[in-house]
Design goal:
The complex is a heterodimer of chains A (about 350) and B (about 300). Chain A has one domain (about 1-280, about 295-315). Chain A is built from 15 helices and 4 strands. Chain A has helices at about 1-20, 30-55, 60-75, 85-105, 110-130, 135-140, 160-185, 185-195, 200-205, 210-230, 230-235, 245-260, 265-285, 295-315, 320-340, and strands at about 150, 155, 285-290, 290-295. In chain A, the strands form 2 sheets. Chain A has a two-stranded antiparallel sheet with strand order 1-2. In chain A, a hairpin with a 2-residue loop joins β1 and β2. The radius of gyration of chain A is 21 Å and the shape is globular. Chain B is an all-alpha fold and about 300 residues long. Chain B has one domain (about 1-295): ABC transporter involved in vitamin B12 uptake, BtuC, CATH 1.10.3470. Chain B has 13 helices and 2 strands; from the N terminus they run ααααββααααααααα. Chain B has helices at about 1-30, 40-55, 65-90, 100-120, 150-170, 170-180, 185-190, 195-215, 225-230, 230-240, 245-260, 270-290, 290-295; strands spanning about 140, 145. A two-stranded antiparallel ribbon of chain B has the order 1-2. In chain B, α1 (about 1-30) packs parallel to α5 (about 150-170), α2 runs antiparallel to α3 and α6 (about 170-180) packs across α8 (about 195-215). The chains are: A mainly alpha (about 350), B mainly alpha (about 300). At the A-B interface, α5, α12 and α14 of A face α4, α10 and α12 of B.
C-alpha cells in the first residue's frame, strides 16, 4: 500500500508541475478561467465526497462555496485579517453550515433531501446573500472588494498576480484530492460507503450514523467553502450571482455527468464548467454563410442539461467512470488477443 | 382589521398560485413516480409560448377574446407536445431506474428549458394579460373587493384538485395510470398499454403546468427564472399534501400563501418568504414524515 501511496503522491506532483505551467502564456481572461476552474473543481469534489462516497444528495453546494467566499471576504475587509486566517474562517463557516444542513439529513434520504437542500440554496440566494439584515456578512449590495493578498510568499490579486492565486489553489486542490483518494479505502471511507449502500446495514455493523453523516456534510461543505474562500481574491470582489441556485444545480448536474464517484472527474468537470462557457462567448460569434450568429452562455447550460439526460440514460456511471471501465475492458481484451504471455494487471 | 383582511386576501391569492403549481407536481408524481423539479420550467416555457402568440402572432385589430383564446390554445398545445416529447425521448428510457435518478434527470430538463427560454426571451420582465374573466369585475367580500380573475384561479385549483382526483380514482384510465407508476412490469402483465398510459400522464402533467402558468401570469410580472423557481413553494405545498392528496395540496398551497404573506406586515424583505417555505418543508418532512414518503425516499 505504501508504494501505491507514493505513486499517487508522485502523480499529484507531476500533475502540479504540468498544470501550473499551462495558463502561463495566456491572457488574464484565461488565467481567470484557470483559477475559476479550480474553484469549481472544489465544488464538484465536495459532491464526490457527499454523493459519490456517502450517497447523500445535495443541491446547495454553491451555497457552501458562497458562505466560504463571504466569510473570507468579511474577515479581510471588515476585520482586516490575514488572507490565510480569512480562508480558514471561510472554511470553518462553511463546515458549520454543512453540519447544520446535515441535521435534517439524519431523517431524510434521496428525493426529500434534494427538496430540502434546494430550499436552502434558494433561501441563501434570495435572503441571506441579499437582505439588509445580513450586511455584516455580505458587505451590502456591492459585496466585499479584495485588492491583493500574500500567501506562502506568493503575491496574489485579480489581475497581474492571478497566477499566484491559481498556483496556490491548484496546490490545495491536489492535496485535498489526494486526501480524498486515500479516504476512499480508509476506515472512515469504508464507513461512508457502508452508509451509501445501506444505512440500516451500516448501523447494524456499528457505524455511528449521526456522527458520520454530519461529518460527511461538514467535510463536504468545507471543501466547497475552501474553493469559494478564494473567489473574492480571484474575482476581485464577491457577489451573490456566482453562488445562486443555478450554480448549485450545475454542480449537481456536472458532477453526475462526469462521474460522481471519481475524484479525477471533479477536476475534469471544473475545467468544463469554467473554460467552455468562456471559450463559447469569446469565439462563438461571427458570420456563417452570410448569417451573423452568437453563441451565448445560455447554450452552455442547455448543453449541460441535455448531456446530463443523455449520460444518465447511456452512461450511468458518468463520463469518467464509464469510459474508464470501457478502456479497461478494451485493454484487457487487446492484451488477451495480442499475446497470451502478457500478464493482465 | 381591514389591513389584516387585505393581507389575508393577498395571501390567499398567492396561495391560489402555489396550489395550481403544486397540483401538477402531485399529478406527475402519482402517475409516473417522477418528482418533477422541472415542473416550474415546463409551465414557464409554455407560458412564454402563449406570450409569444399573444403579442407576436395576433393582429392588434383582433378582439381581445380572440387573441386570448389563440394564446391559451397555443400554450396548451405546446405543453401537450412537450410532455409527449419528454416521455418519448427521456422518461421512457429510465422507467425502471431509481426515483433519485429520475429526479436528477428532471434537473437536467430544468437547466435546458430554463436556458433555452432565457436564450429566446432574454432576462426581461414580462406581463401577459390573459384575462379569462372581465378584467375589472370585482366581488365584495367583507368590504374587500376581490377580482373576478382571482376567483377563476381558486375555482380552477379546486376544480382541478377534485376533478383530477376523481379521474385517477374512478376511471379505468386513471387506475391504469396509477398502476403504471406503481409497477410498469405488473401493469403490462395485466394488459395495460404502459407506453401509451405514460405518454398521456406526461401530457396531462405538462398541460396542468401550462394551465397554472397561464392562469397565474395576469397577476404577476414574470421572467424566465421567477416561474422556474416557483417550484420550491409548489413543492412545499405538494409536501403538505403528502405528494399524494390533491385536495390537501390545494389546502397546503393556501396555507403556505398565508404563512408567507402575514410576516410581510412586520418584515419588509423580498427574500424572507423563501425562508418560510423552507421552514414549512422542514416541518412537514421531519414532524409528519407520512407513509407517502416511503416511496419518495427510496
Amino acid at each position: 500500500m505504501t508504494s501505491r501511496l507514493a505513486f499517487r503522491i508522485l502523480l499529484a506532483l507531476v500533475a502540479f508541475a504540468v498544470l501550473a505551467r499551462i495558463p502561463v502564456g495566456f491572457d488574464v481572461g484565461f488565467k481567470f478561467d484557470a483559477a475559476l476552474a479550480v474553484i469549481w473543481a472544489f465544488g464538484l469534489l465536495s459532491l464526490v465526497l457527499l454523493t459519490g462516497y456517502v450517497g447523500q444528495i445535495s443541491l446547495c453546494q454553491a451555497t457552501f462555496a458562497g458562505v466560504g467566499a463571504y466569510g473570507a471576504g468579511m474577515m479581510v475587509s471588515s476585520l482586516h485579517a490575514d488572507y490565510a486566517v480569512a480562508v480558514i474562517a471561510g472554511v470553518a463557516a462553511a463546515f458549520v453550515l454543512g453540519v447544520l444542513v446535515g441535521l435534517p439529513a439524519l431523517r431524510l434520504r434521496g428525493i426529500t433531501l434534494a427538496i430540502v437542500t434546494l430550499g436552502i440554496a434558494l433561501v441563501f440566494e434570495r435572503y441571506v446573500f441579499q437582505d439588509h439584515a445580513f450586511e455584516w456578512f455580505t458587505g451590502g449590495s456591492g459585496g466585499w472588494r479584495i485588492d491583493h493578498a500574500t500567501l506562502f510568499g506568493l503575491q496574489m490579486d485579480s489581475s497581474t498576480h492571478l497566477m499566484g492565486a491559481y498556483v496556490v489553489l491548484l496546490g490545495l486542490f491536489l492535496a485535498v484530492a489526494l486526501l480524498m483518494v486515500n479516504l476512499h479505502d480508509s476506515g472512515a471511507g469504508r464507513r461512508f460507503r457502508a452508509i451509501r449502500d445501506s444505512e440500516v446495514a451500516a448501523t447494524t455493523m456499528g457505524v455511528n450514523l449521526t456522527r458520520y453523516k454530519l461529518l460527511a456534510f461538514g467535510m463536504s461543505a468545507a471543501i466547497a467553502g475552501l474553493g469559494g474562500a478564494f473567489y473574492p481574491l480571484v474575482a476581485g470582489s464577491v457577489s451573490p450571482q456566482p453562488f445562486w441556485l443555478f450554480t448549485s444545480l450545475q454542480f449537481a448536474a456536472i458532477a453526475v455527468l462526469m462521474g460522481v464517484r471519481y475524484v479525477p472527474a471533479a477536476a475534469l468537470g471544473g475545467v468544463f464548467m469554467a473554460v467552455v462557457p468562456d471559450v463559447l462567448t469569446r469565439f462563438g460569434h461571427g458570420t456563417f454563410m452570410g448569417h451573423a450568429y452568437e453563441i451565448s452562455y445560455d447554450w452552455f447550460q442547455i448543453a449541460v442539461g441535455v448531456l446530463l439526460i443523455v449520460q444518465l440514460i447511456v452512461l450511468p456511471d458518468g463520463v469518467w467512470g464509464d469510459l474508464r471501465s470501457r478502456a479497461a475492458r478494451i485493454w484487457s481484451a487487446a492484451a488477451f488477443l495480442g499475446a497470451r504471455r502478457v500478464k493482465v494487471a | 382589521m381591514t389591513e389584516f383582511a387585505a393581507y389575508t386576501i393577498i395571501g390567499l391569492s398567492l396561495g391560489g398560485i402555489f396550489s395550481l403549481a403544486a397540483l401538477g407536481i402531485v399529478l406527475i408524481y402519482r402517475t409516473t413516480g417522477v418528482l418533477n423539479f422541472a415542473h416550474g420550467a415546463m409551465g414557464m416555457f409554455s407560458t412564454f409560448v402563449a406570450w409569444q402568440v399573444f403579442y407576436g402572432v395576433s393582429h392588434p385589430f383582433w378582439p381581445a377574446w380572440l387573441a386570448t383564446l389563440l394564446a391559451v390554445i397555443a400554450g396548451l398545445t405546446f405543453a401537450a407536445v412537450m410532455g409527449l416529447v419528454l416521455e418519448l425521448a427521456v422518461f421512457r428510457w429510465v422507467r425502471t431506474r431509481e426515483p433519485v435518478v429520475k429526479a436528477v434527470i428532471t434537473i437536467g430538463v430544468l437547466l435546458a428549458l430554463q436556458s433555452a427560454a432565457s436564450l429566446i426571451w432574454k432576462n426581461n420582465q414580462y406581463h401577459l394579460p390573459l384575462y379569462l374573466a372581465p378584467q375589472t369585475a370585482t366581488i365584495q367580500v367583507a368590504d374587500v373587493p376581490i377580482g373576478a380573475n382571482y376567483i377563476v384561479i381558486v375555482v380552477a385549483a379546486l376544480g382541478l384538485a377534485f376533478g383530477l382526483g376523481a379521474f385517477l380514482r374512478y376511471t379505468s384510465f386513471g387506475r391504469a395510470m396509477r398502476a403504471v407508476s406503481d409497477s410498469p412490469t405488473s401493469a403490462s402483465l395485466w394488459g395495460v398499454p404502459v407506453n401509451r398510459v405514460s405518454a398521456v400522464s406526461w401530457m396531462l402533467g405538462s398541460l396542468v403546468a401550462a394551465l397554472a402558468g397561464i392562469l397565474i401570469t395576469p397577476f404577476i410580472n414574470f421572467d424566465t427564472t421567477s416561474l422556474t423557481l416557483l417550484i420550491i413553494d409548489a413543492l412545499a405545498a405538494a409536501l403538505i399534501g403528502g405528494l399524494v392528496s390533491l385536495p390537501l395540496t390545494v389546502l397546503g398551497g393556501f396555507l403556505l400563501g398565508l404563512l408567507e404573506t402575514y410576516p410581510t406586515i412586520w418584515i419588509q424583505s423580498l427574500g424572507f418568504p423563501r425562508l418560510v417555505s423552507l421552514l414549512v418543508i422542514l416541518v412537514v418532512l421531519i414532524v409528519r414524515n407520512p407513509r407517502g414518503f416511503a416511496v419518495a425516499a427510496k
